[in-house]
Amino acid sequence: MMYGRQIDTGAVLEKLDAYLQKNDYDAAKQHLLYWLSEAESMCDHKTVLLLYNELMGLCRKLGERDEAFFYVKKALGQVTKMKIELNVGAATTYLNCATVYKAFDRAQDALPLYEKAKMIYEHNLPRYDERLGGLYNNMGLALCDVKRFEEANNLFKQALDVMGGIPQKEPEQAITYLNMATAVEMQLGLEKAEPLIAGFVEQAMALLDKGKERTDGNYAFVCEKCASVFGYYGYFSYEQALTERYRRIYEGA
């Protein structure tokens, strides 16, 4: 697993993905904690930062608020320690930390970090880079939380443009359309927004259906993430269809 004094992070992440594809979150967390201990003992600062990012994301997904905030603090401290505050790697850390804050109802704390990530990404990444699309989506949702809807919609449109320029990113575009449905509901209320919501939801359905034969973990994750949203808007049969899709993929993994 090691070369010299650096950990083979590719192998670590490959094993992590295998656990996540099986929804084995306990094993995934123990795996990350083991390699974090190894990286810290070796002073492998780059790997330490990577693992802080992975741990905050996993804790966010598991609803472990205090632990997620702990790794946010550690990651931001590691960026400062490494003196990489304006690097793309730092921007990814800012994005991940902001997403943790957003997930636990602290959008006001998230937005300055999203802004820092946005500045660095837009300066350093090509236009059609999926990291930009992910940033625009997540920052847009945080803006909705603080009722800055026009700015949010502009970011969602940018996310669609970015993901539309990358092959096989229809699932990510579908997520954006569902985000737009959520945004317009928050802005106008469910009854007034219903026609707009229907349009966004149906576009998301069409995009997800383009990949209905896919068997990769990312598609399964998107189906799992989106299924309940379709159910919320009354598309119960489609919610069931997505549930069957992601279960089929996970069980076949």
Brief digest:
The chain is mainly alpha-helical. It is built from 12 helices and 2 strands, in the order ββαααααααααααα.
**Strand proportion:** under 5%
Q: Based on CA inertia axes, which overall geometry fits?
A: globular
Detail the poorly predicted runs: none
Strand order of the largest sheet: 1-2
How far apart are the first and last residues' alpha carbons, in Å? Answer: 24 Å
What does the oligomeric state look like here? single chain
The percent range for helix content is over 70%
Structural category is mainly alpha
Mean model confidence by pLDDT: 95
How many strand segments?
2
Rg calculated over all Cα atoms: 19 Å
Q: Major β-sheet, in short?
A: 2 strands, antiparallel
- Number of helical runs? 12
User: SSE order in H/E notation?
Assistant: EEHHHHHHHHHHHH
